[in-house]
Amino acid sequence: MFWGFSEALDFVHEYKKLLPEDEPLPESLNILLFGGGDPRHVLATAAKLCENPKLTVNLYCVEGCIELIARQMLLVSIAFEDPALLSVKGKTHLFMDLFGNTLIRPFSTAYLNGKACVLTNIVTDPEYAQRYAPIFVLDALKYKELDQLENVFRFWTNGPQHVFNIARYWDDRIRVQMGERYDNRNGAFDWDLQMRLRENGAKQICPQEYKHWRESGVAFTFPEYEQSDPNKTFAVGLVRNGMAYHHRGSVGDNATGPYISFGQHAPEERLIRSKHGVNDFRSTDITERNVLQMVYEIQERQPYRFDPRDIHQFGAHQLDVGKSLNKYESRTDPLHAVSYDASPLLECNNLKLHFLSVEDVLRVQEGDKFSNRFDAVFVASNYFSLLKDGFARSWKERCLLCCETRQLTTFSKEEINTHNEAIKMWAKRNALQPVTNFSINKNHAVLMYKHLG
User: Fold this and answer.
1) What pairing do the DSSP bridges indicate for beta strands 28-34 and 56-62?
2) In sequence order, what are the beta bridge partners of 378?
3) What is the rounded CA–CA span in Å between residue 185 and residue 12?
4) d(Cα 158, Cα 148) in Å, to the nearest integer?
5) Distance (Å, whole) CA 391 – CA 149
6) What is the mean pLDDT of the chain?
7) What is the reported pTM?
8) What CA–CA distance (Å, rounded) separates 368 from 365?
9) Which of 141, 169, 281, 415 could serve as a FRET partner for 54 with CA atoms 20 to 30 Å apart?
10) Is the alpha carbon torsion for 60, 298, 39, 193 positive or negative?
11) Antiparallel, parallel or unpaired: β 136-137 and 351-355
């Protein structure tokens, strides 16, 4: 729910593969992210736009939950933050903290508190939004949804009644799911990792980081940091009740983890080396490397050159973390408020991120509003069942269709194959031409097809 189960895709690069070698890119590309869950495709595409300065990219993000839109606005804002406020390394660790950890550093809490006020201004003041964050386009959101976003951002600020004891909710949920196996949960966690995730292809995830995440909800750890405060961006179903809020507690994925989006592969082969099943680098370290590259290229508008000193290497180490985990209290005292509205987000004149209405989950597939609109479409695995017969009307000729599979999850091989066959049957009904090479004996996190029009 809060992250995807496939790696980040640069959609300009993927679309370019469809074109003949001598054919240039069109002046603009319209790309639909149908339930992406996180901004990985946004950042991967934005990072490489410096290579195509004359190309305009419109990314349309549709989610079934307003809190996911709020999270995406926050995480994209971190990547586009003014370098005078945050360094590339600072943005990288802040992004990872808020993206994948149920408990976060006090600095991340202070940032969230300050940034929530800025995001409130963005959704309530169109002139401020145009001045501060011109990459965001909120025109498709209804007034009710803008009010809901404002409620979400206000909940993120520190207040005595903004309670979110995520560590307790997480543990209660694990207890219910495990039942009698709770006392032997470490063995169950190890079985899920070794017999499901690694067998399915997610080999970069290390036992120490995975078990720590399953136990505490904290996925990304470094020896110089301690996570102690609740990450309120994981709250969904928020309903205001006077000065307090009701919410649904801990929801979303608690079996696979946030390691797939950025943490499975790297251009440098030495980063994914393994000896006797022990990785030199954790999925956390690979995530750090890949997010840092994206943040650097968005900021500097030039290719990133890898330096091993930029990242950690703890594949074979068991870090002594978790002593300051705050399991019983939620921070309500206002931290030192840092202002993040002094400087606007970094400019990216050839990128617009359109947030569509929650109702567009179905409407984007029906009627004429989005007819012949999209050059590329990404469909998340948990949104595949929502696809309608009229979806093809929104595709342009030679549209690229990317369907996420359940390959890099804890689903069984039978469940993965069943889902893959459903995608192939759907593609056949819509007369799509495969782009993915199925003749190679390889497991795919995304199945790609081309619409011939």
Assistant:
1) parallel
2) 33, 402
3) 43
4) 18
5) 28
6) 92
7) 0.94
8) 9
9) 141
10) positive
11) parallel
How much is the pLDDT for 136?
98
Using CA atoms, how far apart are residues 111 and 233, in angstroms rounded to an integer? 12
Tokens representing 266?
């790297």
Q: What is the pLDDT of residues 388-441, one digit of tens each?
A: 988 999 999 999 999 999 999 999 999 999 999 999 999 999 999 999 988 777
Which of 205, 175, 218 has its CA nearest to residue 409? Answer: 205
